[in-house]
Amino acid sequence: MAEGMALELIHLADHENSVVIRVLGRRDPDEIDAEVVITSTFCNGRLRLRLAPKDLDDWAKALDDLAAGRSVCWMTDLRNPEINIEFNTQFSVPLITVEDVQGSGTAMAVPVDLPDGWVEEQRGRLERVHQLPPA
């Protein structure tokens, strides 16, 4: 991708915490280079990942569950970090956990106060990633 052309598949943020999956470019028609970036008032983390078409399809299904108020666990095939979005936690807002299960074994969880319409915003981001031209 050209410099300054940031494309985000996921952008979940409030005034303190955020979880973002930033697209870095398309390697080939079946693979997208990306990174997950987690920020909080306590600590920050960044991890590279490679997204396949199945990951994008699974994210679309996860968004359906999230729209219905159900918690989800996305990317559970151990190629990438697992991303959990949980409702009904000790926090009054969703808790987003990114866990590098296969790599470092490290997990980071942040509560994020999401605005109304956040699921639809994520659907729009997914559509823009689907439209990303091949390398």
Essential attributes:
single chain, 135 residues, alpha+beta, Transcriptional Co-activator pc4, Chain A, 4-stranded antiparallel sheet, 8 strands, 39% strand, globular
Account of the protein in words:
- This protein has helices spanning 53-67, 118-130, and strands at 7-13, 18-28, 31-39, 44-51, 72-74, 82-86, 95-99, 107-111.
- It is α+β, with helices and mostly antiparallel strands.
- It has a single domain, classed as Transcriptional Co-activator pc4, Chain A.
- The strands form 2 sheets. Strands 1-2-3-4 form a 4-stranded antiparallel β-sheet.
- Strand 5 (72-74) and strand 6 (82-86) form a beta hairpin.
- The chain is globular, with a radius of gyration of 14 Å.
- The chain starts with 6 loop residues before the first strand and ends in a 5-residue tail after the last helix.
